[in-house]
Amino acid sequence: METTAASGALGGDDLSSSSPITAISRWTFALSQRYQHMLDKTVPHIFHRWIACLAVVFIYAVRVYFVQGFYIITYGLGIYMLNLLMGFLSPQVDPEMQDGPTLPTRGSDEFRPFVRRLPEFKFWYSITKAFCIAFIMTFFSIFDVPVFWPILLFYWLMLFILTMRRQILHMIKYKYVPFSFGKQRYDGKKAASAETTSLPKD
Questions:
Q1: What is d(CA 47, CA 162) in angstroms, rounded to the nearest whole number?
Q2: Residues 17-51: pLDDT tens digits?
Q3: To 10 degrees, the CA torsion angle through 151, 155, 161, 166?
Q4: Cα separations (Å) of 191 from 104, 111, 123, 198?
Q5: Is the overall model pTM greater than 0.85, yes or no?
């Protein structure tokens, strides 16, 4: 009897493991792993990634131009991109906060590389995904809200100018540049030669 009960329990577990819900969850998990693996392979190819992003933006712009609508989607997309841009240009640790490392403000300070609040890969991925979602939304007339698009463009330009002005003032106040070019780089050969010349001669 115990053997029969045990075999019945095992049979029930086999049935539950082979249920459609379990199979679908396994399939989606494997698909997400493969998708993440493909994304990881694109990390070092910065130039090609942004070319693909520009191609997606161009396709969306052509779609909106020929449809002559969905301006509210484009406005929301512009607000979202502006928010991403602020995260891309901002340091991971706000210099105004007391806790955490601060950015160097003098040449004698220790050099620390600029760490973004939003890394470049996430910045690219968020923009590309947003344009893909917006492109799909243009095929549903429910999102085509009639608006006067010059007003939306004017609002977005004013918001862009005010936001960028505040960000530039923040950069000037704390003396940092959110880009890698122009920063100090350690050169072992130069450092070694400098130490050699500074040694006292006998």
A1: 30
A2: 568 888 888 888 888 889 888 888 998 999 999 99
A3: 170
A4: 21, 15, 36, 11
A5: no
